[in-house]
Amino acid sequence: MSRQTKAIIDLQALKRNLNRLKALAPASKTLAVVKANAYGNGVQKVSETIQSDVDMFAVAISEEAVALRQGGIEKPILVLQGPHQASEISDYRALHFTWMIHNTTQLDWVEKAFEKDARVANQLWFKFDSGMHRLGFALNEFSTLRAKHPHFFNKHTVVATHLACADEPDKPNTSIQLARFFDTVGSSGLSLSIANSAAHIANVNARQSYNRIGIAMYGSSPFEDPNPSAQPTLDLSPVMHLYASIIALRKIPKGDSVGYGASWQAKRDTIIATVAIGYADGYPRHAPSGTPAFYKNQRIELVGRVSMDMVTFDVTDVPDAALYDEVELWGANVGINEVAAKVGTIGYELMTRVSPRVPRQYQ
After folding, report:
1. Strands (E), the chain
2. In the predicted model, what is the mean pLDDT of the chain?
3. CA quadruple 50, 54, 59, 62: dihedral sign
4. Which residue is catalytic, options 35, 127, 218, 279?
5. For the chain, what is the largest distance between any 2 Cα atoms, rounded to a whole number of angstroms?
6. Where does the pLDDT of residue 241 fall: very low under 50, low under 70, confident under 90, or very high at 90 and above?
7. At what angle do helices 43-50 and 62-70 cross, to 10 degrees?
8. CA-to-CA distance for 287 and 345, rounded, in angstroms?
9. How far is Cα 226 from Cα 160, in angstroms, rounded to an integer?
């Protein structure tokens, strides 16, 4: 590895987080969401590490599910978007995927597949739209669908919904969605799945037969408010720690600028550290001056624009700054959500956008 840019993935933190989350609902089954390369943390290592601790995995699309099977993962796998083409159901029959069915076209496809192999009826979840208005059958279709397709609503079937505002617990939307969902399917006797990470932590009523644990498992808060005091506490540990090294140091006089566009000017004589990471590595291009990092037991601030392969930090107040020292971009000392808030995004995006050219090192 020529440069020291890397993402350290703490697998023990991953397991601790998962176990703390599971303890909130010990009677429920746990579905670990590992889509998008396990939120950028490396799906193979993550899945191998927690396979014995979960009941099921979830991915977005069938290609992600195939990769899990090819990597030796044997637990059930839910494909959250369901099949995108009818052929997927037959092509992957031997891999025993579970499909989330959310529209009538998909339902027609599984009906045709059922005619050839009745086992498909035992590998279906159904999504209903309780207010997210993104995917799912209308709730008022539930009784009709169940009556028309009774073979698909059996002891293996899970009925799911997704909450639009679970990351903002004070909003009334979640209570409204839960009431709609329970009024329609609560007495059906079928297994239910409602909770994502935020709802699992903050709303006991959302914890049902299967809880879908994603971002919180990776140690990042799922809540919209970046202020830790405004969030439910669970003592989660960051799993991804992003580092890069200083590859240049220079002193510039007061009034000089740094980086493209000369957008930042020094208000004092300043020592600038150039760090080997940029937007091609997934560090956000629109991170403003003042975005924090951590170096030699203190916080430092980004100055100037983020380049494709480099960023610059003010290290004037750091004693003995030296070439090839490591800087923490986020991790134990600077939370990923804090960086995200500076950029105007969320931790999910930063974590999943760390590019393949950043090696993942597991410990």
Report:
1. 6-9, 29-33, 56-59, 77-79, 97-101, 124-129, 137-138, 158-160, 191-193, 210-213, 240-252, 257-258, 264-265, 270-275, 292-295, 298-302, 311-314, 326-330, 360-362
2. 96
3. positive
4. 35
5. 77
6. very high
7. 60
8. 10
9. 28
Strands (E), 311-359: 311-314, 326-330
- What are the tens digits of pLDDT across the range 63-122? 999 999 999 999 999 999 999 999 999 999 999 999 999 999 999 999 999 999 999 999
What pLDDT was estimated at residue 224? 72
Find, among 69, 70, 114, the residue nearest to 89 by Cα: 114
Active site annotation includes 295:
no
Q: State the pLDDT confidence band at 226, using cuts at 50, 70 and 90.
A: low
Using an 8 Å Cβ cutoff, are 249 and 315 in contact? Answer: yes
pLDDT at position 225: 67
- The dihedrals phi and psi of 30, each to the nearest 5 degrees, come to -110, 125
Contact 60, 84 (CB under 8 A): no
- For residues 324 and 334, what is the distance between their CA atoms, to the nearest angstrom? 20
Is residue 75 part of the annotated active site? The answer reads: no
Q: Please, what is the Cα angle at 199 between 193 and 202, to 5 degrees?
A: 140
| Residue of 148, 171, 254, 260 marked active site | 260
User: How big, in percent rounded to 5, are the helix, strand and coil portions of the chain?
Assistant: 35, 25, 45
285 closest CA partner among 328, 243, 344, 222: 344
Side chain identity, residue 306: V
Stated pTM of the model: 0.95
Helices (H) and strands (E) in the chain, counts: 11, 19
Q: Is the pLDDT of residue 230 over 80?
A: no
Separation CA 106–CA 133 (nearest Å): 18
